[in-house]
Protein backbone atom coordinates (compact mmCIF):
# COMPACT_ATOMS: atom_id res chain seq x y z
CA UNK A 1 0.00 0.00 0.00
CA UNK A 2 1.27 3.45 -0.94
CA UNK A 3 2.73 5.49 1.89
CA UNK A 4 1.81 9.17 1.86
CA UNK A 5 3.14 12.05 3.89
CA UNK A 6 2.19 15.69 3.76
CA UNK A 7 4.71 18.50 4.01
CA UNK A 8 3.72 22.07 4.86
CA UNK A 9 6.75 24.36 4.63
CA UNK A 10 6.23 28.02 5.60
CA UNK A 11 8.35 30.51 3.63
CA UNK A 12 9.01 34.07 4.80
CA UNK A 13 7.69 35.74 1.68
CA UNK A 14 4.05 36.54 1.07
CA UNK A 15 3.96 39.35 -1.49
CA UNK A 16 6.56 38.71 -4.19
CA UNK A 17 4.88 36.17 -6.47
CA UNK A 18 8.02 35.78 -8.57
CA UNK A 19 9.92 34.51 -5.54
CA UNK A 20 7.04 32.30 -4.41
CA UNK A 21 6.67 30.78 -7.89
CA UNK A 22 10.38 30.00 -8.11
CA UNK A 23 10.20 28.11 -4.81
CA UNK A 24 7.08 26.14 -5.75
CA UNK A 25 8.55 25.34 -9.16
CA UNK A 26 11.35 23.49 -7.36
CA UNK A 27 8.71 21.32 -5.68
CA UNK A 28 6.96 20.59 -8.96
CA UNK A 29 10.19 19.32 -10.54
CA UNK A 30 10.07 16.22 -8.31
CA UNK A 31 8.13 13.24 -9.66
CA UNK A 32 5.69 11.69 -7.22
CA UNK A 33 4.89 14.93 -5.38
CA UNK A 34 1.63 16.83 -5.74
CA UNK A 35 1.58 20.52 -4.94
CA UNK A 36 -1.83 20.90 -3.35
CA UNK A 37 -1.97 24.49 -2.18
CA UNK A 38 0.01 27.74 -2.14
CA UNK A 39 -1.40 30.26 0.34
CA UNK A 40 0.44 33.62 0.46
CA UNK A 41 -0.43 36.17 3.16
CA UNK A 42 0.24 39.87 2.62
CA UNK A 43 0.01 40.98 6.25
CA UNK A 44 2.04 38.06 7.57
CA UNK A 45 4.48 38.24 4.61
CA UNK A 46 4.47 34.47 4.68
CA UNK A 47 3.45 31.70 2.29
CA UNK A 48 2.16 28.32 3.45
CA UNK A 49 2.76 25.58 0.88
CA UNK A 50 1.13 22.16 1.05
CA UNK A 51 2.46 19.15 -0.85
CA UNK A 52 1.86 15.43 -0.57
CA UNK A 53 3.44 12.27 -1.92
CA UNK A 54 5.58 9.26 -1.11
CA UNK A 55 8.16 9.99 1.61
CA UNK A 56 11.34 9.89 -0.49
CA UNK A 57 9.89 12.22 -3.10
CA UNK A 58 8.50 14.64 -0.50
CA UNK A 59 11.77 15.09 1.37
CA UNK A 60 13.58 15.63 -1.93
CA UNK A 61 11.07 18.32 -2.91
CA UNK A 62 11.31 19.92 0.53
CA UNK A 63 15.11 20.04 0.29
CA UNK A 64 15.01 21.75 -3.10
CA UNK A 65 12.44 24.29 -1.87
CA UNK A 66 14.47 25.09 1.27
CA UNK A 67 17.57 25.57 -0.84
CA UNK A 68 15.81 27.91 -3.27
CA UNK A 69 14.15 29.92 -0.48
CA UNK A 70 17.57 30.50 1.09
CA UNK A 71 18.85 31.81 -2.22
CA UNK A 72 15.94 34.21 -2.82
CA UNK A 73 14.80 35.48 0.59
CA UNK A 74 16.81 37.97 2.66
CA UNK A 75 15.69 37.76 6.28
CA UNK A 76 17.56 40.95 7.21
CA UNK A 77 14.87 42.84 5.26
CA UNK A 78 11.85 40.77 6.29
CA UNK A 79 8.89 42.26 8.15
CA UNK A 80 5.61 40.51 8.91
CA UNK A 81 2.90 39.92 11.51
CA UNK A 82 3.69 36.23 12.01
CA UNK A 83 6.54 34.98 14.26
CA UNK A 84 9.49 33.79 12.14
CA UNK A 85 13.19 33.01 12.29
CA UNK A 86 14.22 31.90 8.82
CA UNK A 87 13.65 32.04 5.06
CA UNK A 88 12.11 28.60 5.40
CA UNK A 89 10.71 29.20 8.84
CA UNK A 90 9.24 25.79 9.58
CA UNK A 91 8.95 22.55 7.61
CA UNK A 92 6.77 19.85 9.20
CA UNK A 93 6.19 16.34 7.84
CA UNK A 94 2.80 14.82 8.60
CA UNK A 95 1.81 11.14 8.25
CA UNK A 96 -1.25 10.81 6.00
CA UNK A 97 -1.63 7.21 4.83
CA UNK A 98 -0.03 3.83 5.63
CA UNK A 99 2.87 5.34 7.56
CA UNK A 100 3.46 5.69 11.28
CA UNK A 101 4.63 8.74 13.17
CA UNK A 102 7.83 6.86 14.04
CA UNK A 103 8.62 6.34 10.35
CA UNK A 104 7.76 9.96 9.59
CA UNK A 105 10.15 11.11 12.32
CA UNK A 106 13.02 9.28 10.61
CA UNK A 107 12.30 11.05 7.33
CA UNK A 108 12.18 14.43 9.11
CA UNK A 109 15.54 13.75 10.75
CA UNK A 110 17.04 12.69 7.41
CA UNK A 111 15.82 15.90 5.80
CA UNK A 112 17.14 18.02 8.67
CA UNK A 113 20.55 16.34 8.53
CA UNK A 114 20.83 16.89 4.78
CA UNK A 115 19.77 20.56 5.01
CA UNK A 116 22.23 21.20 7.83
CA UNK A 117 25.16 19.48 6.18
CA UNK A 118 24.71 20.24 2.48
CA UNK A 119 23.30 23.76 2.78
CA UNK A 120 25.28 24.68 5.91
CA UNK A 121 22.12 26.03 7.49
CA UNK A 122 21.28 25.92 11.23
CA UNK A 123 18.44 23.41 11.68
CA UNK A 124 16.38 22.62 14.75
CA UNK A 125 14.15 19.60 15.17
CA UNK A 126 10.72 20.04 16.73
CA UNK A 127 7.64 18.15 17.90
CA UNK A 128 7.90 14.35 17.45
CA UNK A 129 11.24 14.57 15.58
CA UNK A 130 13.00 16.21 18.55
CA UNK A 131 14.42 13.65 21.03
CA UNK A 132 14.99 16.37 23.66
CA UNK A 133 11.49 17.29 24.77
CA UNK A 134 12.81 20.42 26.51
CA UNK A 135 13.29 21.99 23.09
CA UNK A 136 10.52 20.37 21.06
CA UNK A 137 8.02 23.24 21.25
CA UNK A 138 8.03 25.43 18.14
CA UNK A 139 7.19 28.67 19.93
CA UNK A 140 10.00 28.02 22.43
CA UNK A 141 12.53 27.41 19.64
CA UNK A 142 11.34 30.50 17.78
CA UNK A 143 11.18 32.79 20.85
CA UNK A 144 12.91 36.08 20.14
CA UNK A 145 12.49 35.44 16.42
CA UNK A 146 15.06 36.32 13.78
CA UNK A 147 16.10 39.55 15.48
CA UNK A 148 17.32 37.78 18.64
CA UNK A 149 18.80 34.77 16.92
CA UNK A 150 22.34 36.14 16.45
CA UNK A 151 22.85 35.96 20.23
CA UNK A 152 20.58 32.99 20.93
CA UNK A 153 22.49 30.60 18.68
CA UNK A 154 25.70 31.22 20.67
CA UNK A 155 24.18 29.72 23.85
CA UNK A 156 25.15 26.04 24.27
CA UNK A 157 21.55 25.07 25.01
CA UNK A 158 20.53 26.47 21.59
CA UNK A 159 23.16 24.77 19.50
CA UNK A 160 21.38 23.58 16.32
CA UNK A 161 20.60 19.89 15.93
CA UNK A 162 22.24 20.01 12.50
CA UNK A 163 24.31 22.56 10.64
CA UNK A 164 26.66 25.25 11.94
CA UNK A 165 26.10 27.15 15.21
CA UNK A 166 26.66 30.37 13.31
CA UNK A 167 24.13 33.14 12.70
CA UNK A 168 23.17 33.27 9.03
CA UNK A 169 22.03 36.85 8.51
CA UNK A 170 20.43 36.18 5.12
CA UNK A 171 18.74 32.81 5.61
CA UNK A 172 18.22 32.72 9.39
CA UNK A 173 17.49 29.21 10.65
CA UNK A 174 15.01 26.48 9.83
CA UNK A 175 12.87 24.25 12.06
CA UNK A 176 12.07 20.78 10.70
CA UNK A 177 9.87 18.27 12.45
CA UNK A 178 7.12 15.69 12.39
CA UNK A 179 3.68 16.32 13.82
CA UNK A 180 0.07 15.32 13.64
CA UNK A 181 -2.21 17.10 11.22
CA UNK A 182 -2.43 20.77 12.23
CA UNK A 183 -5.12 23.16 11.11
CA UNK A 184 -4.18 26.82 10.88
CA UNK A 185 -7.40 28.73 11.31
CA UNK A 186 -8.32 32.39 11.84
CA UNK A 187 -11.55 33.66 13.43
CA UNK A 188 -12.76 37.11 12.41
CA UNK A 189 -14.10 39.61 14.97
CA UNK A 190 -16.20 42.77 14.68
CA UNK A 191 -13.46 44.77 16.39
CA UNK A 192 -10.19 46.42 15.43
CA UNK A 193 -8.69 45.90 18.89
CA UNK A 194 -5.72 43.54 19.06
CA UNK A 195 -5.93 43.69 22.85
CA UNK A 196 -9.54 42.44 22.84
CA UNK A 197 -8.68 39.71 20.34
CA UNK A 198 -5.76 38.62 22.50
CA UNK A 199 -8.01 38.48 25.57
CA UNK A 200 -10.32 36.03 23.79
CA UNK A 201 -7.31 34.05 22.54
CA UNK A 202 -6.05 33.75 26.14
CA UNK A 203 -9.54 32.62 27.23
CA UNK A 204 -9.48 29.62 24.90
CA UNK A 205 -5.87 28.58 24.26
CA UNK A 206 -4.53 25.68 26.29
CA UNK A 207 -1.68 27.76 27.78
CA UNK A 208 -4.20 30.32 28.98
CA UNK A 209 -2.84 33.48 30.61
CA UNK A 210 -0.57 34.40 33.49
CA UNK A 211 -2.46 34.71 36.77
CA UNK A 212 -2.27 38.22 38.18
CA UNK A 213 -3.11 39.97 41.42
CA UNK A 214 -3.00 43.76 41.70
CA UNK A 215 -1.53 43.93 38.22
CA UNK A 216 1.40 41.66 39.04
CA UNK A 217 2.10 38.03 38.02
CA UNK A 218 1.41 35.44 40.73
CA UNK A 219 4.24 32.97 41.36
CA UNK A 220 4.36 29.57 43.04
CA UNK A 221 6.67 28.49 45.86
CA UNK A 222 9.43 27.85 43.30
CA UNK A 223 9.22 31.34 41.87
CA UNK A 224 7.54 30.27 38.62
CA UNK A 225 4.60 32.23 37.28
CA UNK A 226 1.22 30.52 37.59
CA UNK A 227 -0.92 30.19 34.49
CA UNK A 228 -4.70 30.04 34.33
CA UNK A 229 -5.39 27.42 31.62
CA UNK A 230 -7.69 28.26 28.73
CA UNK A 231 -10.85 26.31 27.94
CA UNK A 232 -9.57 24.31 24.94
CA UNK A 233 -6.93 21.58 24.82
CA UNK A 234 -4.44 21.25 21.93
CA UNK A 235 -5.07 24.86 20.91
CA UNK A 236 -2.57 27.67 20.42
CA UNK A 237 -3.94 31.16 19.77
CA UNK A 238 -3.00 34.82 19.57
CA UNK A 239 -4.88 37.96 18.57
CA UNK A 240 -3.77 40.33 15.85
CA UNK A 241 -5.05 43.10 13.59
CA UNK A 242 -5.10 42.42 9.86
CA UNK A 243 -4.82 45.66 7.94
CA UNK A 244 -5.72 43.90 4.70
CA UNK A 245 -9.20 43.11 6.09
CA UNK A 246 -9.51 45.99 8.56
CA UNK A 247 -10.47 43.69 11.45
CA UNK A 248 -8.88 41.87 14.33
CA UNK A 249 -8.59 38.10 14.17
CA UNK A 250 -7.80 35.27 16.52
CA UNK A 251 -5.08 33.21 14.84
CA UNK A 252 -5.34 29.60 15.92
CA UNK A 253 -3.30 26.44 15.53
CA UNK A 254 -5.35 23.32 16.23
CA UNK A 255 -2.57 20.87 17.00
CA UNK A 256 -4.79 17.82 17.50
CA UNK A 257 -8.19 17.96 15.83
CA UNK A 258 -9.19 14.71 17.52
CA UNK A 259 -9.01 16.59 20.84
CA UNK A 260 -10.39 19.95 19.71
CA UNK A 261 -12.07 19.90 16.28
CA UNK A 262 -12.40 23.10 14.29
CA UNK A 263 -16.14 23.46 14.96
CA UNK A 264 -15.65 23.22 18.73
CA UNK A 265 -12.93 25.89 18.57
CA UNK A 266 -15.23 28.14 16.54
CA UNK A 267 -18.19 27.72 18.88
CA UNK A 268 -16.08 28.29 22.00
CA UNK A 269 -14.60 31.48 20.56
CA UNK A 270 -18.12 32.67 19.71
CA UNK A 271 -19.09 32.09 23.35
CA UNK A 272 -16.04 33.83 24.83
CA UNK A 273 -16.32 36.74 22.38
CA UNK A 274 -19.99 37.21 23.24
CA UNK A 275 -19.09 37.42 26.94
CA UNK A 276 -16.83 40.36 26.08
CA UNK A 277 -19.42 42.12 23.92
CA UNK A 278 -17.72 41.09 20.67
CA UNK A 279 -19.26 39.19 17.80
CA UNK A 280 -17.60 36.60 15.57
CA UNK A 281 -18.35 37.48 11.95
CA UNK A 282 -16.75 34.51 10.22
CA UNK A 283 -13.49 32.63 9.89
CA UNK A 284 -10.86 31.61 7.36
CA UNK A 285 -8.84 28.49 6.79
CA UNK A 286 -5.11 28.76 6.09
CA UNK A 287 -3.99 25.91 3.84
CA UNK A 288 -5.95 22.67 3.60
CA UNK A 289 -8.28 20.70 5.85
CA UNK A 290 -9.12 16.97 5.98
CA UNK A 291 -12.53 15.99 4.65
CA UNK A 292 -13.52 14.41 7.97
CA UNK A 293 -13.03 17.72 9.80
CA UNK A 294 -15.50 19.43 7.47
CA UNK A 295 -18.01 16.56 7.62
CA UNK A 296 -17.83 16.47 11.43
CA UNK A 297 -18.45 20.22 11.52
CA UNK A 298 -21.46 19.94 9.23
CA UNK A 299 -22.95 17.16 11.37
CA UNK A 300 -22.29 19.13 14.56
CA UNK A 301 -24.19 22.18 13.38
CA UNK A 302 -27.07 20.12 11.94
CA UNK A 303 -27.48 18.24 15.22
CA UNK A 304 -27.54 21.55 17.11
CA UNK A 305 -30.52 22.42 14.92
CA UNK A 306 -32.09 19.02 15.69
CA UNK A 307 -31.92 18.13 12.04
CA UNK A 308 -30.86 14.87 10.40
CA UNK A 309 -27.11 14.63 9.87
CA UNK A 310 -27.54 11.80 7.38
CA UNK A 311 -27.23 14.02 4.32
CA UNK A 312 -24.74 14.09 1.46
CA UNK A 313 -21.11 15.16 1.76
CA UNK A 314 -21.87 18.20 -0.35
CA UNK A 315 -24.64 19.36 1.97
CA UNK A 316 -22.58 18.72 5.11
CA UNK A 317 -19.73 20.78 3.68
CA UNK A 318 -22.10 23.61 2.73
CA UNK A 319 -23.52 23.66 6.28
CA UNK A 320 -19.97 23.74 7.72
CA UNK A 321 -18.94 26.63 5.45
CA UNK A 322 -22.01 28.71 6.24
CA UNK A 323 -22.04 27.92 9.97
CA UNK A 324 -18.42 28.99 10.47
CA UNK A 325 -18.48 31.78 7.89
CA UNK A 326 -15.54 30.29 6.00
CA UNK A 327 -16.56 32.26 2.93
CA UNK A 328 -16.77 35.69 4.62
CA UNK A 329 -13.44 37.07 3.40
CA UNK A 330 -13.09 35.10 0.17
CA UNK A 331 -14.90 32.23 -1.60
CA UNK A 332 -14.35 28.83 0.00
CA UNK A 333 -13.97 26.25 -2.77
CA UNK A 334 -14.07 22.71 -1.33
CA UNK A 335 -12.28 21.27 -4.35
CA UNK A 336 -9.31 23.55 -3.59
CA UNK A 337 -9.31 23.45 0.23
CA UNK A 338 -10.18 19.87 1.22
CA UNK A 339 -7.16 17.59 0.95
CA UNK A 340 -8.99 14.48 -0.30
CA UNK A 341 -10.75 16.50 -3.00
CA UNK A 342 -7.45 17.99 -4.11
CA UNK A 343 -5.96 14.51 -4.43
CA UNK A 344 -8.98 13.29 -6.35
CA UNK A 345 -8.76 16.22 -8.75
CA UNK A 346 -5.07 15.57 -9.35
CA UNK A 347 -5.76 11.88 -9.97
CA UNK A 348 -8.20 12.65 -12.79
CA UNK A 349 -11.88 11.98 -13.36
CA UNK A 350 -13.75 9.03 -11.95
CA UNK A 351 -16.76 7.07 -13.11
CA UNK A 352 -18.84 8.26 -10.16
CA UNK A 353 -18.30 11.87 -11.23
CA UNK A 354 -19.86 11.29 -14.65
CA UNK A 355 -23.41 12.42 -15.39
CA UNK A 356 -26.08 9.72 -15.45
CA UNK A 357 -26.23 9.78 -19.24
CA UNK A 358 -22.43 9.78 -19.62
CA UNK A 359 -22.15 6.85 -17.22
CA UNK A 360 -24.77 4.92 -19.21
CA UNK A 361 -23.01 5.79 -22.47
CA UNK A 362 -19.66 4.66 -21.09
CA UNK A 363 -21.20 1.38 -19.91
CA UNK A 364 -22.78 0.79 -23.32
CA UNK A 365 -19.60 1.57 -25.26
CA UNK A 366 -17.03 -0.86 -26.70
CA UNK A 367 -14.92 -0.55 -23.56
CA UNK A 368 -15.24 -3.59 -21.25
CA UNK A 369 -15.28 -1.29 -18.20
CA UNK A 370 -17.35 -0.35 -16.31
CA UNK A 371 -18.74 -3.85 -16.22
CA UNK A 372 -21.11 -5.89 -14.12
CA UNK A 373 -19.15 -5.39 -10.89
CA UNK A 374 -19.27 -1.61 -11.15
CA UNK A 375 -22.95 -1.67 -12.06
CA UNK A 376 -23.71 -3.95 -9.10
CA UNK A 377 -21.97 -1.50 -6.76
CA UNK A 378 -23.90 1.41 -8.27
CA UNK A 379 -27.24 -0.36 -7.97
CA UNK A 380 -26.41 -1.07 -4.31
CA UNK A 381 -25.61 2.61 -3.75
CA UNK A 382 -28.94 3.62 -5.29
CA UNK A 383 -30.82 1.11 -3.14
CA UNK A 384 -29.51 2.35 0.17
CA UNK A 385 -29.84 5.95 -1.05
CA UNK A 386 -33.58 5.40 -1.30
CA UNK A 387 -33.70 4.15 2.28
CA UNK A 388 -31.62 7.13 3.39
CA UNK A 389 -34.11 9.44 1.69
CA UNK A 390 -36.95 7.79 3.64
CA UNK A 391 -35.01 8.30 6.88
CA UNK A 392 -34.44 11.98 6.16
CA UNK A 393 -38.07 12.52 5.23
CA UNK A 394 -39.13 10.81 8.44
CA UNK A 395 -36.75 13.01 10.48
CA UNK A 396 -38.62 16.07 9.19
CA UNK A 397 -42.14 14.64 9.28
CA UNK A 398 -44.64 16.86 11.04
CA UNK A 399 -45.67 15.36 14.37
CA UNK A 400 -42.56 13.15 14.58
CA UNK A 401 -40.31 15.85 16.08
CA UNK A 402 -39.32 13.68 19.02
CA UNK A 403 -37.94 11.00 16.67
CA UNK A 404 -35.54 13.15 14.60
CA UNK A 405 -32.43 11.64 16.27
CA UNK A 406 -33.61 8.06 15.58
CA UNK A 407 -34.00 8.74 11.88
CA UNK A 408 -30.85 10.85 11.72
CA UNK A 409 -28.89 7.84 12.99
CA UNK A 410 -30.41 5.61 10.29
CA UNK A 411 -29.72 8.22 7.62
CA UNK A 412 -26.06 8.47 8.68
CA UNK A 413 -25.69 4.69 8.39
CA UNK A 414 -27.28 4.82 4.96
CA UNK A 415 -24.94 7.57 3.82
CA UNK A 416 -21.95 5.53 4.96
CA UNK A 417 -23.05 2.48 2.95
CA UNK A 418 -23.81 4.67 -0.07
CA UNK A 419 -20.39 6.34 0.01
CA UNK A 420 -18.52 3.04 0.33
CA UNK A 421 -20.47 1.44 -2.49
CA UNK A 422 -19.83 4.43 -4.76
CA UNK A 423 -16.10 4.11 -4.14
CA UNK A 424 -16.36 0.47 -5.23
CA UNK A 425 -17.83 1.51 -8.59
CA UNK A 426 -14.42 2.87 -9.52
CA UNK A 427 -12.50 0.26 -7.55
CA UNK A 428 -14.03 -2.54 -9.63
CA UNK A 429 -13.00 -0.81 -12.87
CA UNK A 430 -9.48 -0.28 -11.53
CA UNK A 431 -9.30 -3.97 -10.57
CA UNK A 432 -10.11 -4.90 -14.17
CA UNK A 433 -7.43 -2.49 -15.47
CA UNK A 434 -4.93 -4.09 -13.09
CA UNK A 435 -5.63 -7.51 -14.65
CA UNK A 436 -5.21 -6.09 -18.16
CA UNK A 437 -1.90 -4.53 -17.12
CA UNK A 438 -0.69 -7.86 -15.75
CA UNK A 439 -1.63 -9.63 -19.00
CA UNK A 440 0.43 -7.05 -20.92
CA UNK A 441 3.64 -7.79 -18.98
CA UNK A 442 6.47 -9.41 -20.97
CA UNK A 443 7.02 -13.18 -20.84
CA UNK A 444 10.15 -13.70 -22.92
CA UNK A 445 12.01 -15.73 -20.30
CA UNK A 446 11.34 -17.76 -17.15
CA UNK A 447 11.94 -14.83 -14.80
CA UNK A 448 9.52 -12.60 -16.71
CA UNK A 449 6.95 -15.40 -16.85
CA UNK A 450 7.20 -15.86 -13.08
CA UNK A 451 6.72 -12.13 -12.44
CA UNK A 452 3.80 -12.01 -14.88
CA UNK A 453 2.08 -14.98 -13.25
CA UNK A 454 2.52 -13.44 -9.80
CA UNK A 455 1.10 -10.11 -10.98
CA UNK A 456 -1.87 -11.86 -12.60
CA UNK A 457 -2.67 -13.81 -9.45
CA UNK A 458 -2.45 -10.70 -7.26
CA UNK A 459 -4.67 -8.75 -9.66
CA UNK A 460 -7.18 -11.61 -9.87
CA UNK A 461 -7.43 -11.87 -6.09
CA UNK A 462 -8.08 -8.12 -5.93
CA UNK A 463 -10.77 -8.50 -8.62
CA UNK A 464 -12.45 -11.13 -6.42
CA UNK A 465 -12.24 -9.10 -3.21
CA UNK A 466 -13.82 -5.94 -4.67
CA UNK A 467 -17.18 -7.47 -5.72
CA UNK A 468 -17.20 -9.54 -2.53
CA UNK A 469 -17.01 -6.27 -0.60
CA UNK A 470 -19.94 -5.03 -2.68
CA UNK A 471 -21.88 -8.11 -1.57
CA UNK A 472 -21.10 -7.46 2.09
CA UNK A 473 -22.08 -3.80 1.97
CA UNK A 474 -25.25 -4.24 -0.08
CA UNK A 475 -26.35 -7.05 2.23
CA UNK A 476 -25.64 -4.95 5.33
CA UNK A 477 -27.56 -2.00 3.83
CA UNK A 478 -30.73 -4.11 3.88
CA UNK A 479 -30.94 -3.49 7.65
CA UNK A 480 -31.40 0.22 6.96
CA UNK A 481 -33.87 -0.53 4.18
CA UNK A 482 -35.89 -2.88 6.39
CA UNK A 483 -35.99 -0.38 9.27
CA UNK A 484 -37.35 2.28 6.92
CA UNK A 485 -39.96 -0.11 5.53
CA UNK A 486 -41.08 -0.88 9.10
CA UNK A 487 -40.83 2.51 10.82
CA UNK A 488 -40.14 5.19 8.20
CA UNK A 489 -42.49 7.69 6.64
CA UNK A 490 -45.38 5.49 5.43
CA UNK A 491 -45.87 7.69 2.37
CA UNK A 492 -42.43 6.53 1.17
CA UNK A 493 -42.70 2.82 1.88
CA UNK A 494 -42.59 1.97 -1.84
CA UNK A 495 -39.17 3.66 -1.99
CA UNK A 496 -37.94 1.24 0.66
CA UNK A 497 -39.29 -1.60 -1.48
CA UNK A 498 -37.41 -0.43 -4.55
CA UNK A 499 -34.32 -0.08 -2.36
CA UNK A 500 -34.63 -3.74 -1.35
CA UNK A 501 -34.87 -4.82 -4.97
CA UNK A 502 -31.72 -2.85 -5.77
CA UNK A 503 -29.79 -4.30 -2.83
CA UNK A 504 -30.73 -7.84 -3.83
CA UNK A 505 -29.63 -7.22 -7.43
CA UNK A 506 -26.35 -5.75 -6.17
CA UNK A 507 -25.60 -8.83 -4.07
CA UNK A 508 -26.49 -11.36 -6.76
CA UNK A 509 -24.73 -9.40 -9.50
CA UNK A 510 -21.57 -8.93 -7.47
CA UNK A 511 -21.52 -12.65 -6.62
CA UNK A 512 -21.50 -13.46 -10.33
CA UNK A 513 -18.35 -11.36 -10.65
CA UNK A 514 -16.77 -13.06 -7.65
CA UNK A 515 -17.38 -16.47 -9.20
CA UNK A 516 -16.20 -15.65 -12.71
CA UNK A 517 -12.92 -14.18 -11.42
CA UNK A 518 -12.47 -17.02 -8.95
CA UNK A 519 -12.17 -19.46 -11.86
CA UNK A 520 -8.77 -17.91 -12.73
CA UNK A 521 -7.31 -17.92 -9.21
CA UNK A 522 -5.01 -20.74 -8.14
CA UNK A 523 -5.50 -20.69 -4.34
CA UNK A 524 -8.32 -23.21 -4.08
CA UNK A 525 -8.61 -22.94 -0.27
CA UNK A 526 -9.20 -19.20 -0.57
CA UNK A 527 -11.71 -19.77 -3.37
CA UNK A 528 -13.65 -22.41 -1.43
CA UNK A 529 -13.92 -20.07 1.56
CA UNK A 530 -14.98 -17.01 -0.45
CA UNK A 531 -17.61 -18.99 -2.39
CA UNK A 532 -19.03 -20.45 0.83
CA UNK A 533 -19.27 -16.99 2.39
CA UNK A 534 -20.77 -15.53 -0.78
CA UNK A 535 -23.39 -18.29 -1.01
CA UNK A 536 -24.45 -17.61 2.58
CA UNK A 537 -24.71 -13.84 1.94
CA UNK A 538 -26.74 -14.48 -1.23
CA UNK A 539 -29.16 -16.77 0.61
CA UNK A 540 -29.62 -14.36 3.51
CA UNK A 541 -30.14 -11.46 1.09
CA UNK A 542 -32.90 -13.22 -0.84
CA UNK A 543 -34.69 -14.07 2.42
CA UNK A 544 -34.33 -10.54 3.80
CA UNK A 545 -35.56 -8.99 0.56
CA UNK A 546 -38.67 -11.21 0.75
CA UNK A 547 -39.35 -10.02 4.33
CA UNK A 548 -39.04 -6.37 3.30
CA UNK A 549 -41.26 -6.76 0.24
CA UNK A 550 -43.91 -8.46 2.39
CA UNK A 551 -43.89 -5.45 4.78
CA UNK A 552 -44.04 -3.02 1.86
CA UNK A 553 -46.88 -4.81 0.06
CA UNK A 554 -48.93 -5.07 3.27
CA UNK A 555 -48.59 -1.30 3.83
CA UNK A 556 -49.44 -0.48 0.22
CA UNK A 557 -52.48 -2.73 0.51
CA UNK A 558 -53.51 -2.90 -3.12
Secondary structure elements and their pairing?
Blueprint: E1 4-7, E2 10-11, H1 17-28, E3 33-41, E4 46-53, H2 55-72, E5 88-97, H3 101-118, E6 123-127, H4 138-142, H5 145-152, E7 174-178, E8 183-189, H6 194-204, E9 209-210, E10 212-213, E11 216-217, E12 227-228, E13 235-242, E14 247-254, H7 262-275, E15 280-286, H8 291-304, H9 313-324, H10 334-337, H11 339-347, H12 356-364, H13 372-395, H14 404-439, H15 446-487, H16 493-518, H17 524-556
Parallel strand pairs: 5-7, 6-7
Antiparallel strand pairs: 1-4, 1-5, 2-4, 2-5, 3-4, 8-14, 8-15, 9-12, 10-11, 13-14
Any idea what the CATH architecture of the largest domain is? Up-down Bundle
| Number of separate domains | 3
Average pLDDT reading: 92
What characteristic shape results from the CA principal axes? globular
Which CATH top level class of the largest domain fits?
Mainly Alpha
The total beta strand count reads 15
CATH level-4 homologous superfamily of the largest domain: Formiminotetrahydrofolate cyclodeaminase monomer, up-and-down helical bundle
Rg, alpha carbons: 28 Å
Helix content: 40-55%
Beta-strand content: 5-15%
- Termini separation comes to 54 Å
Task: Extract low-pLDDT stretches.
Answer: none
Alpha-beta classification: alpha+beta
Please describe the biggest sheet, giving its number of strands, its sense, and whether it closes into a barrel. 7 strands, mixed
Q: What do we call the CATH topology of the largest domain?
A: Four Helix Bundle (Hemerythrin (Met), subunit A)
Amino acid sequence: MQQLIECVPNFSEGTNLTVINQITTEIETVDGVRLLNVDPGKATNRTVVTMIGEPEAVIEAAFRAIKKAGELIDMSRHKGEHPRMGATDVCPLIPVANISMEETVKYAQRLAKRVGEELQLPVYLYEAAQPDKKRSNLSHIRAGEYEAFAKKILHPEWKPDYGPAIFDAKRGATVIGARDFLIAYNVNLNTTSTRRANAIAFDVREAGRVKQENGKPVKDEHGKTINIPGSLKAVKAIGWFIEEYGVAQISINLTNINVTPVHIAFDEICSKANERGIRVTGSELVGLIPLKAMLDAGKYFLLKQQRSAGVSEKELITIAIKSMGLDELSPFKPEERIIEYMLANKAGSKMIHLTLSDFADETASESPAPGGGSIAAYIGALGVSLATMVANLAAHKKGWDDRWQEFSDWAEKGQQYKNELLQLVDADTKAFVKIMYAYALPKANDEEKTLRTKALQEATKHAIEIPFKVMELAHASLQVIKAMAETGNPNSVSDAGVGALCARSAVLGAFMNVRINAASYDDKIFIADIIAQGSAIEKETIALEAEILKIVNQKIGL
